[in-house]
């Protein structure tokens, strides 16, 4: 089960709350967040590039997307093992993040070239497992930006990066996410209103008894 949404939408908060709600119902839950900072060298390079490291690396949409994809490729066996060992595996961002952000950066839509390329690279070539479903935590770009800003003030080492401070990118990204959800890209999508309180108990029940 993949959680997707803009920077600051509340994905991590939802993943934590949903994990508690699922565990309270007796389910065993594993949680993984991408990029895997501190675990994968590809993820660390991404973070450094988003904070102006590595020259013009962050300017390359395809270059960055390959790094995100390599991070996931290195986790493919772990994901399969977690799926075998648990009732629910929650992924905070996955392949669709690459599709949404790369398309938004290139000003393409969900039917564009780069979205197809991401599928071919990550699913076709790297053999990443397809999720059962996505949860799109939908908030307006303004709400996401405000939450990301508040988080940056409250937490150390969370200064907003090059993608988070680009309002136009976040707006285009929100539009691509809506299109990916509407077309059922890679797996079915369920859209959650991230401004209204998500009913975690009801969501946990639905996930366990689809
Ligand atoms: N439903 C919510 N209402 C208000 N604030 C929220 C909500 N969900 C998350 N937040 C806050 O917004 C900020 C970003 O949330 P986070 O879960 O880290 O987002 P993401 O993982 O999508 O980047 C955090 O400070 C978090 O406490
Ligand atoms: C996982 C992933 C993230 N991204 C983008 C979305 C975010 O703007 C950025 C960083 O990911 P994010 O999960 O937001 O990390 P953090 O907020 O903890 O730094 O990378 C992609 O473009 N492709 C991907 O495959």
Please give the domain count. 1
User: Which ligands appear in the coordinates?
Assistant: adenosine-5'-diphosphate, thymidine-5'-diphosphate
In CATH, the architecture is 3-Layer(aba) Sandwich
* Mean of all residue-level pLDDT scores: 97
EC number: 2.7.4.9
Pfam families: Thymidylate_kin
Protein name: Thymidylate kinase
Family: Belongs to the thymidylate kinase family.
What does this protein look like?
This protein is of the alpha/beta class. The chain has a single domain, classed as Rossmann fold (3-Layer(aba) Sandwich), CATH 3.40.50.300. Helices cover 53% and strands 11% of the residues. The chain has helices spanning 11-24, 41-50, 61-73, 76-85, 95-105, 113-125, 141-154, 167-183, 200-208; strands at 2-4, 29-33, 88-92, 134-138, 189-193. Strands 2-3-1-4-5 form a 5-stranded parallel beta sheet, with helices on both faces. Helix 3 runs antiparallel to helix 5 and helix 3 (61-73) runs parallel beside helix 6 (113-125). It is globular. The model has no long low-confidence stretch (mean pLDDT 97). Bound molecules: adenosine-5'-diphosphate (ADP) and thymidine-5'-diphosphate. The site of adenosine-5'-diphosphate has 11 residues, from helix 1 and helix 7. It comes from Amycolatopsis camponoti. Its EC number is 2.7.4.9. Residues 3-182 form the Thymidylate kinase-like domain. Keywords: ATP-binding, Kinase, Nucleotide biosynthesis, Nucleotide-binding, Transferase.
